[in-house]
Specification:
Blueprint: E1 2-8, H1 13-27, E2 33-36, E3 39-43, E4 49-53, E5 58-63, H2 68-75, E6 80-83, H3 95-107, E7 110-111, E8 114-118, E9 123-128, E10 135-142, E11 147-154, E12 157-170
Parallel strand pairs: 3-7, 8-12
Antiparallel strand pairs: 1-5, 1-6, 2-5, 3-4, 8-9, 9-10, 10-11, 11-12
């Protein structure tokens, strides 16, 4: 299976995913197409949990192939902007992008809280939770809210990801 990233209207990711799945199923019921819209579980200062978007404006399509007919069909779904890099030359995820996608997919569409630690160079290591093994540079730590902002290279550019953590210890 290959995976492509689709840029959609921010805030309409769930609607796009639902409509796109319906259209793809109606067009070819025997073909395996799966759309993913990743979210993360966060924790407030008062220890109340809530869910928010991991990558606003991005939905991922997993399929055997991406032909012109499928691209044209998806373009008719409300909120569709374009495939990354472009509709004319959509590029399947590869390398680290594919590794991150597989990691997120394995954890489910709603990623839970993670336990983290910091090394001497202020690099974050996720020691437990759905993002275990993901490393990146620490940009900001908010100990009061128990959040860490890290930067990882994904989709050809640095991306900032906010994570809630349950425990932070120095290494």
């Amino acid at each position: 299976m290959n995976c492509w990233c689709i840029m959609v209207k921010t805030g309409e990711e769930d609607k796009f995913k639902s409509q796109a799945e319906q259209k793809l199923l109606a067009e070819n019921p025997s073909e395996q197409n799966r759309l993913y819209f990743f979210k993360k579980r966060m924790q407030s200062r008062r220890n109340q949990q809530f869910v928010e978007t991991l990558f606003p404006g991005y939905v991922f399509l997993e399929s055997e192939e991406l032909g012109r007919a499928k691209i044209e069909l998806l373009k008719t779904v409300y909120g569709f902007y374009h495939f990354l890099l472009s509709n004319e030359k959509p590029q399947a995820l590869s390398g680290y992008d594919l590794e991150y996608f597989s990691l997120f997919k394995k954890s489910g569409e709603v990623l839970g809280l993670s336990r983290v630690c910091f090394d001497a160079k202020q690099r974050i290591v996720i020691i437990d939770g759905p993002l275990k093994g993901l490393e990146g540079n620490v940009i900001r730590v908010n100990q009061r809210c128990k959040r860490v902002t890290i930067e990882v290279e994904m989709l050809g550019a640095p991306r900032k990801i906010d994570l809630s953590y349950t425990e932070v210890t120095s290494v």
